[in-house]
Amino acid sequence: MTTREINAQGWTRRSALTAGLASGGALALGPRAQAAGVSETEFVSGLDGLARTIQGRFLTSGSRGYDEARKVWNLAYDRHPIAMARCADLDDVRRCVEFARRHALPVTIHGGGHSYAGFAAADSALQIDLGAFNAVKVDKHRRVASVGGGVRIRDLLTATLAEGLITPMGSCGDVGVAGLALAGGDTAGRGLFGTACDNILGAELVTADGEVLELGPGRNKDLFWAIRGGGGNFGVVTRLDFRLHPAWTSYVAQFDFGWSDIGGALRIFGDLVRDVPDAVRAGFEVDGQSGASATCGFIGDAATAAAYLERWKSSFRRVEARMSTFTPDPKGEVWTTTSVAVDGAFLDGVSDGAADVLARAAMAGRGFGDIIMGLSNGVAARVGMTDTAYPLRGTGLSLLLSSEWSRPEDRARSEHWVAEYGAALRPLARRAYVNYIPPSPPERIREIYGVNYPRLARIKARYDPANLFRSNQNILPASAA
Ligand SMILES: Cc1cc2nc3c(=O)[nH]c(=O)nc-3n(C[C@H](O)[C@H](O)[C@H](O)COP(=O)(O)OP(=O)(O)OC[C@H]3O[C@@H](n4cnc5c(N)ncnc54)[C@H](O)[C@@H]3O)c2cc1C
């Protein structure tokens, strides 16, 4: 980014205190200063100094644009950072991190702002906004794409597809690449190419100490292992390098069941995905408005795909298949900003118990609840559980329960449905994709990472002992775990 938009008002003690009072004390400067062992005046003047040295835009609650900038995609979260720095370069990121460490100020990282849990903003934290880290470089000969820490999926895919190349990504073009890939990725093409974190070849990371490290095979091995699944727990990732693959087309059969015998359709789906070729993408979805559908896509040539899809057509013969072809689209399905409650689960398969819970969830959520379940198979499934931090290995189904509302009076209904069926799925699936769950307590995060948690906690203790980076599904430093 070339813009230099330092807040015209700057940061003054007066505006800080006025704003703090006006927002019901959300800024909590007193306790922040106390935690840092300085007076409130020193704290405010330190923040003022930071604002002056940052090249990018710096906003505080007194600034024009603060309320717009602190908004995240999921409007269910309404949080007030102490300040938001749209870092223009690596030095800005380092300055912010160093300031935060000296003042015991939690850091939030804003990549694409699409965290379901609203993690890009946190009360009383310093936000590092990576929107200016938006460059994408494609080396078509080495088949590598290097992206800035704030790049969105649509920008990455626009650049790679222009060269006939792609790397597994998610379905919405507005989502941040780093926020998705650092947590693992629920991605298209993972059966053939692995999921997003499996394609990370290297990264640049600013640690809590303000050190800039290169990560890759043989370079800061522990951190390189940890960022492939451990999310934003270990520092600010300012660059990621991804392996690229030839762009693909998939041949798709979709079966629409509406609201009839969803449990039966789920059981058949479960049988079909028990053993599938790597070229298969499959999903089962319940749309709160239109009901259930199953989809199978086959990546490859048309004749092989048609032969394979016959198996699905004969299993689901009670409905006619809708056939189409799918080529990755940089924009994807763009989902506009909304208020939504979510929970996730990673199922080993569709057991009778899971089919019953999901069929009940579908009927209870008719009109307002969605269930999205995607198959994780092939290459992504075969990576060893401890080869990366990402714990969702083995063939399975990554499931997202979500319920949106636009009227405040509908919020409780949505939250209740998600909580009830999320809890009903828990005994059937201890694991879940960390990007699909609400802000969660340490026990759940420990359970999800399972065998990988102790190593993650040790790496966290080494690189972020004060847990500066805690606006995420948090891994506690080993000493505190
Ligand atoms: C509409 C929608 C569709 C989605 N579809 C998919 C999908 O198909 N597949 C899938 O896997 N997920 C999907 N997700 C979930 C998505 O992966 C997460 O919400 C992810 O956190 C979004 O990343 P972000 O950068 O946009 O979010 P942000 O809110 O900006 O960041 C969330 C967190 O990610 C971490 N983070 C982000 N950038 C960095 C960085 N550069 N360095 C260090 N840490 C960083 C930080 O901890 C940060 O708090 C979807 C979400 C939405 C809202």
What would you note in describing this structure?
- The protein has 481 residues and is α+β, with helices and mostly antiparallel strands.
- It has helices at residues 13-22, 29-36, 40-53, 66-69, 90-102, 153-161, 177-181, 190-193, 221-227, 262-272, 302-315, 352-364, 378-382, 411-425, 442-449, 453-463; strands spanning 58-60, 83-86, 107-110, 126-129, 136-139, 144-148, 165-166, 200-206, 212-215, 236-243, 245-246, 250-258, 280-287, 291-299, 322-326, 339-347, 370-376, 396-405.
- The chain has three domains: 13-129, Uridine Diphospho-n-acetylenolpyruvylglucosamine Reductase, domain 2, CATH 3.30.43; 136-246, Uridine Diphospho-n-acetylenolpyruvylglucosamine Reductase, domain 3, CATH 3.30.465.10; 250-326 and 338-436, 3-Layer(aba) Sandwich (Vanillyl-alcohol Oxidase, Chain A, domain 3).
- The strands form four sheets. The protein has a seven-stranded antiparallel sheet. Strands 5-6-10-8-9 form a five-stranded antiparallel sheet. A four-stranded mixed sheet has the order 1-2-4-3, covered by helices on one side.
- A hairpin with a 3-residue loop joins strand 13 (280-287) and strand 14 (291-299).
- Helix 10 packs across helix 12 (352-364).
- The longest helix is centred in the C-terminal third of the chain and has 15 residues, at 411-425.
- The chain is globular and about 70 Å long.
- Residues 1-26 have low confidence and may be disordered.
- Flavin-adenine dinucleotide is lined by residues 72-73, 108-116, 119-120, 130, 149, 170-172, 175-176, 178-180, 182, 185-187, 231-232, 236-237, 335, 435, 471-472.
- Flavin-adenine dinucleotide (FAD) binds at residues 72-73, 108-116, 119-120, 130, 149, 170-172, 175-176, 178-180, 182, 185-187, 231-232, 236-237, 335, 435, 471-472.
